[in-house]
Structure prediction request, 70 residues.
Amino acid sequence: IMIATGTSFEGKRVVIYTRASTTRQEKNDTSLLGQIATVDRWIEENGATQVHVFSESAVPSKARAVRSEK
Prediction:
C-alpha cells in the first residue's frame, strides 16, 4: 500500500486503487477489502474524501476488475 505523506489532504478528493496478485494476498490483510479498509482509515484521519475505488484481482478465481463508487 502506498500512501502519500508530508502534504495536507484536508478536503482533497482521493481515488483508491487496490490490487491482489496472489492467493496469499487474498487470504490475509493485504486482500482487496483489507487494502480498502487501510486507506479508508487514512482518508478519515486526514480529512480527505473518497470519490472512487478501483479494485483488481489477478488471482485466477477472482480475475476481474471491479469498479465501485462511494
